[in-house]
Amino acid sequence: MKKDIRDISPEELKKEVAAMGEPAHRARQIFLWLNRRNAGSFSVMTDLPKGLIAKLRRKFIIGTLECAERLISKDGTEKFLWRLEDGEHVETVFIKEKRRRTLCLSTQVGCRFKCPFCASGMKGFIRDLRVSEIVNQLLLVQKLCACRMTNIVFMGMGEPLDNYDNLEKAIRVINHPDGPGIGARKITVSTCGIVPGILKLKKIGLQVGLSVSLHAVNDRVRDGLVPVNRRYPLKKLISACKEYYGETGRVVTLEYTLIKGRNDSPADAEKLAGIAKRLKAKVNLIEYSPVPGQKRLMPGIKRLALFKESLRLKGVTVTVRKSRGGDILGACGQLAGRYAEKADR
Question: What is the mean predicted confidence (pLDDT) over 12-31?
Fold first, then answer.
């Protein structure tokens, strides 16, 4: 079976080209065609000799994603639903903010960690996305929207650090100067708290941002909201975040979704401030995006404002991530979940 050529790293591509008996500079030409010019076939690579194109065709394919649905919100947010070659679906969200154009990428079909307030894991884990399926989300959105992204966040469907090898390869392609060329400091990886993945990510030599879905300040509550906490409790997670900051110099962001009656008390705010100050981290409060049957968990705007002010008064840098694309099922996993429900009927 032929392999998708976008699934191999730049270094692997160089080795493949050398094995074909071709000069080294051909690997750079191919990489440029694939990841900057978004070539859909080898035949469009007009600066390659026909013999090399024939060799590439014999060994590789150039895959793509099918856009099953494209929704545009009244706030300008766009959501793309991609149909994969095996019939599964994943989502990508494009967020426009003045000069900033952020793309939220998925890394898995489903998720194995089953956080109860997240739509991505409601159907469980199905499979990892390949490197090509991750990178193609970026290439295709840039083509469809006729614009270049300024920021990448791995906050879509799935847990990025649970698909670590493909995540790192995708980051290196996205950051590569001969590819999309998005700076490492403009790339953020979000995790529910996979400690071994955090410790690996700190060593890749790129100043990639780290965002941690904290959501609770003690193990008892976090065990229920973020089940992976039973494997990697807060003490280990906080230690890994401290190491990440020490190695990369990047300020860690603590994501904190306020859930009524679970994690929104004054005592929770005080403990969260203590964790943030210990890590020199910033806090991003999130307005809860309800999944079916859970609207009762929304804390309300007043409660959110009070929680934010409490953190600010304790010297913590705090922002509020406003919910975007609510009218188009903007939260990760919601649109794909709707398609999965249709398929089950």
Answer: 98
| Alpha helices (H) in 9-130, listed in sequence order | 10-19, 25-35, 50-59
Same domain, 250 and 198: yes
Residue 31 to residues 5, 9, 26, 171: CA-CA distances in angstroms? Answer: 9, 9, 9, 15
Beta strands in the chain (DSSP E): 3-4, 60-61, 66-72, 78-83, 89-97, 100-104, 108-110, 125-128, 151-154, 187-191, 209-213, 253-257, 282-286, 318-321
Q: Which residues are marked as active site?
A: 91, 332
Task: Give the CATH number, domain containing residue 303.
Answer: 3.20.20.70
What is the residue range of 301's domain? 66-344
User: For residue range 122-179, what is the model confidence (pLDDT) as tens digits?
Assistant: 889 999 999 999 999 999 999 999 999 999 999 999 999 999 999 999 999 999 999 9
SS3 281: coil
